[in-house]
């Protein structure tokens, strides 16, 4: 359910796209610096958006450096480094992908889920200790969603609300609240909740025909 929040490049000016890419590459570099190379395989546009959003609420001066990367080995690209917003987005990416892999392990993709969760287990253990509030929300909502799937719920409101709760927890965690204050945190919580609901339903619609053929759960089937 990740990868839906993307920049619409035709509407961006060149300098806007360069800024967006600097944050996207910054998250990628932060993941590598903090957790090694393996978790970079799960890099998603959603977390560049989260980094940009949190950065816009901060007065932190974020340095831009020009560096090579694996995909662009010749030309150096601008990359935002040493940013609290980017580091938080990198942490949340690894934590969410880990729990997603655990879900895959029990569900549709047991091999991929087993390999992916094993690769991220060490990093995830540290992040669960660092962000216990977010980890608790993810566990609670995934358990609730599993129960709805088990009973073949036809309510897109109930099922969508589970992932909505996860994103609300990510966007307005205790760590975020400490940085942006209570008022901004409430707004971020609602933004994350509505974004999470939209992501869940968009993903379910995209997978509808595939799920009909495979027999996998999809609320739109019911």
What are the key terms here?
9 helices; mainly alpha; 222 residues; two-stranded antiparallel ribbon
How many helix segments? 9
For the sheet with most strands, the description reads: 2 strands, antiparallel
What is the CA-CA span between the terminal residues? 20 Å
pLDDT under 50 segments (min length 5)?
none
The level of helicity is 55-70%
Percentage of β-strand residues = under 5%
Rg for CA atoms: 18 Å
N-to-C SSE string, H for helix and E for strand: HHEEHHHHHHH
Q: Which class best fits the helix and strand makeup?
A: mainly alpha
Mean pLDDT: 89
Physical arrangement of strands within the biggest beta sheet: 1-2
Compute the number of strand runs: 2
The best one-word shape is globular
Helix-strand layout with pairing:
Layout: H1 14-35, H2 45-56, E1 64-67, E2 77-80, H3 84-106, H4 110-130, H5 132-150, H6 156-171, H7 174-180, H8 182-206, H9 208-214
Antiparallel strand pairs: 1-2
Quick take:
With 222 residues, the chain is mainly alpha-helical. It has 9 helices and 2 strands.
Describe this protein's structure:
This protein is mainly α. It is globular. The model has no long low-confidence stretch (mean pLDDT 89). The longest helix is centred in the C-terminal third of the chain and has 25 residues, at 182-206. Strands 1-2 form a two-stranded antiparallel ribbon. It is 68% helix and 4% strand. 36% of the residues are buried. α2 packs antiparallel against α3. It has helices at 14-35, 45-56, 84-106, 110-130, 132-150, 156-171, 174-180, 182-206, 208-214, and strands at residues 64-67, 77-80. It starts with 13 loop residues before the first helix and ends in an 8-residue tail after the last helix.
